[in-house]
Structure to design on (215 residues):
């Protein structure tokens, strides 16, 4: 099955269920979004313990003929991800599967209704260097249109990414960003509602973009 023309959510869900069972372009997609000074990041962040498990939720829903996914803008704080844009998600609790973590975090952070989410698969897992979390992106389809209720302690506001716009984007551009460690980086990025999306979230979205484009 391939994607052609305008997308609707049911066709996209069927395509993803099939495509996510096949080899994925994870490494290629991720490397395209590494900051230029990745080696410097790797040298700066060294951990004595193995990565913790975590997951994020790429939640697709349909509204007014378009397909969208929520991103969250983190509040400004001193941690490595302060003020950044990310997918809903976080660290796993003991005994949780990646899906359970993604749904719980989605419920806690933006108020989604977990039983309205149908998981269609997962993208490539990888280790987030700066936080030492081995993250698994879960792709889910939402029944209806979510009513977002952001947790004010974890979410400054919710952004909506457009699947159509992501699919159509061809050129990946770079700009200077400041990491949570006050490190200046030249980072490939996407732009969603005038917010810069870079780092781990951009890596995930780039893999999803390649799948939408038939890779």
């Amino acid at each position: 099955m391939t994607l052609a023309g305008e997308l609707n959510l049911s066709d996209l869900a069927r395509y993803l269920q099939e495509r996510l069972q096949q080899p994925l372009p994870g490494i290629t997609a991720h490397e395209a979004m590494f900051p230029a000074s990745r080696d410097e990041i790797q040298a700066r962040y060294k951990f004595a313990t193995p990565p913790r498990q975590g997951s994020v939720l790429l939640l697709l829903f349909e509204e007014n003929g378009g397909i969208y996914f929520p991103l969250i803008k983190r509040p400004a704080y001193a941690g490595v991800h302060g003020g950044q844009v990310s997918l809903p998600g976080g660290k796993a609790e003991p005994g949780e599967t990646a899906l359970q973590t993604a749904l719980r975090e989605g419920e806690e952070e933006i108020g989604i209704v977990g039983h309205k989410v149908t998981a269609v698969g997962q993208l490539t897992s990888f280790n987030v260097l700066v936080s030492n979390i081995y993250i698994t992106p879960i792709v889910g389809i939402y029944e209806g249109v979510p009513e977002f209720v952001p947790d004010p302690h974890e979410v400054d506001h919710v952004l909506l990414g457009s699947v159509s716009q992501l699919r159509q984007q061809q050129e990946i551009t770079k700009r200077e960003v400041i990491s949570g460690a006050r490190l200046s980086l030249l980072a490939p990025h996407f732009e969603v509602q005038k917010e810069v999306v870079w780092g781990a979230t951009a890596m995930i979205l780039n893999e999803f973009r390649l799948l939408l484009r038939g890779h």
